Amino acid sequence: MRCPVRRPIGTKSALFTFAFTSFALAFAAVALAFPGCGRNESRPASRAEAAAPAPPFTPSQSKPEAQVVEVTSLLSRDGVRPGEIFKAAIVLKVQPGYHVNNNAPNDEFLIPTTLTIDDNPNIEVVEIYYPSGDRGRFAYSQAELMVYQGEAVLGALFKAKDRIPAGALKLRATLSYQACDNTSCLPPKDLPFEVPVPVLQAGKEGHDLHPEVFAKIPFRTLMK
Predict the structure, then answer these.
(1) How far is 158 from 173, CA to CA, in rounded Å?
(2) Is this structure's pTM higher than 0.85?
């Protein structure tokens, strides 16, 4: 009787190990020949890439806050004499699609438009006039509101002190307001500006300016 031949234990395992080792060596050789293949490399940016400018920021469709309201001032006289009462018109130009609240909005959460004149030792502020504005309803409030839109004219009544020196004087002022469109409001803003006041020497005569503008500003002080 012929006995079966015994094969050494682990022959199949050795053959598999040999084949796997050969494949690993071949793959390593390819990887050395083409180092950039099969992996994502992080590399430092070149000088040209580092110097390239960032893409420009794209603003929203709303107008920038600084462009919503513009302020100019008009004086009722071309020169002011000591002790004289004179007027200033503060003209607001509100960009289309926006409005600002009047001085007494019907909604407690809204900011009123206010005109503040800084103290000046040579000029006394007698009265500030605010027009009532236009009626309107907007999505952000349940109340009917009074607003300024397009152009609105505020008024300021002044008195020059008796000892005011002749020359060019500038009054510093601030317009505080909150601009809104039909659905929402921008943050409140303070817009500083100046009102130039030419002061004449005593005895010289000045002349009226812009009578059509000041005829529409009913100062209560002058009606007494």
Answers:
(1) 13
(2) no
Give me the average pLDDT of each 10-residue run along the chain (224 residues).
45 43 46 45 40 32 64 97 96 96 89 97 98 92 91 98 95 96 92 97 90 97 88
Classify domain 66-223 at the CATH topology level.
Answer: Immunoglobulin-like (2.60.40)
- The pLDDT of residue 141: 84
Q: Which residues contact 83 (CB under 8 A, 6 or more apart)?
A: 159, 160, 161, 162
Domains of the chain: which residue ranges?
66-223
| 149 CB-near residues (< 8 Å, 6+ apart) | 94, 98, 99, 100, 134, 136
Question: CB–CB of 59/178 below 8 Å?
Answer: no
Do 123 and 158 touch, CB atoms closer than 8 A?
Answer: yes
Both tokens of 68, joined, read: 């919503």
How many whole angstroms separate alpha carbon 205 and alpha carbon 203? Answer: 7
What count of residues does the chain have?
224
3-state helix, strand and coil shares in percent for the chain, rounded to the nearest 5: 15, 35, 50
**What confidence score (pLDDT) does residue 65 get?**
52
Give Cα 123 to chain centroid, integer Å.
32
Nearest to 161 by CA among 80, 222, 78: 80
If DSSP codes are grouped into helix, strand and coil, which group holds residue 191? strand
